[in-house]
Amino acid sequence: MAILVTGGAGYIGAHVVRALERAGLESVVVDDLSSGHREFVRPEVPFLDLNVLHAKQLVEQLSEHHIEAVIHLAAFKYAGVSVEQPVHTWRQNVGGTLSLLRAMEHLDVDAIVFSSSAAVYGTTDVPLVTEDTPTRPESPYGESKLVGEWMIRDQGVATGLRHTSLRYFNVVGSGEPDLYDSSPHNLFPLVIRALSQGHRPRIFGDDYATADGTCVRDYVHVADLAEAHVVAVRRLLEGRELEPVYNLGSGDGVSVRQIMQAVADATGVDFEPEVLGRRPGDPARIVASGERATRDLDWRMRHTLDDMVASAWQARPADPTD
């Protein structure tokens, strides 16, 4: 029996596959490599180059692998770009989840851990986001993730599908020296890429109502996040009752200026970031509580900010354009 990991060749997905391996669980990866990397998946792990939109092909190719549960990470994950490409975002994220649920029903797979997002909350005015904070997504990406949660919930009511959805903010660092974040939009790879190319990293706005004037965000280490996915899927397979959603939050935010200083300390590169104007829609502070996940999923921040930065720097690709 094996765990299907959709998007398992991506930055987070590949870490989840490695965490499953450490836990003694077999995995099968489905990924169309639109943003993932084939080399992130070890040769001994069954790999299907396939988009989850294709339910019939999913059923055909997965039928021989005896899948017992799914960790669903495959998605178009760029919130800002989703505003410019809403149809593409909805097709990939909502259509992909719908297709996967159809395939799971056909294959009699009755457990799923869904990779959701803190983007479902939108801009909040609370000091600490909890699972009870109202959801007001402000991008097609955030909307598509919330709809994915609803679809999975409804399938649970109709068929008894066991499920939980994990919401998280900024995932950073590296748990393996050959796995790195190649996103063209995330803060850590942007800073690392800038330094590797001899440029000054950028801060967008230093006049917010925060301690140092820069935005405060919730950062979690990718290895900690991967472990939470493994615990969640094991809990479902053991028949334990889980909440429909969990925040994987730090409970304690870090400012962009603090990130910059941590990068300078970890790399030994002394730099002064370039400060530009605010970006529209950037709230001053977004931090989430992880108390519910700590209670049920053994969620903990096992890595410090220095760990996050140092591991990301050590795992950076040799080609700074990657």
UniProtKB/TrEMBL annotation:
<keyword id="KW-0119">Carbohydrate metabolism</keyword>
<dbReference type="InterPro" id="IPR001509">
    <property type="entry name" value="Epimerase_deHydtase"/>
</dbReference>
<dbReference type="Pfam" id="PF01370">
    <property type="entry name" value="Epimerase"/>
</dbReference>
<keyword id="KW-0413">Isomerase</keyword>
<protein>
    <recommendedName>
        <fullName>UDP-glucose 4-epimerase</fullName>
        <ecNumber>5.1.3.2</ecNumber>
    </recommendedName>
</protein>
<comment type="pathway">
    <text>Carbohydrate metabolism; galactose metabolism.</text>
</comment>
<dbReference type="InterPro" id="IPR036291">
    <property type="entry name" value="NAD(P)-bd_dom_sf"/>
</dbReference>
<dbReference type="GO" id="GO:0003978">
    <property type="term" value="F:UDP-glucose 4-epimerase activity"/>
</dbReference>
<dbReference type="GO" id="GO:0033499">
    <property type="term" value="P:galactose catabolic process via UDP-galactose, Leloir pathway"/>
</dbReference>
<comment type="similarity">
    <text>Belongs to the NAD(P)-dependent epimerase/dehydratase family.</text>
</comment>
<dbReference type="InterPro" id="IPR005886">
    <property type="entry name" value="UDP_G4E"/>
</dbReference>
<keyword id="KW-0520">NAD</keyword>
<feature type="domain" description="NAD-dependent epimerase/dehydratase">
    <location>
        <begin position="3"/>
        <end position="249"/>
    </location>
</feature>
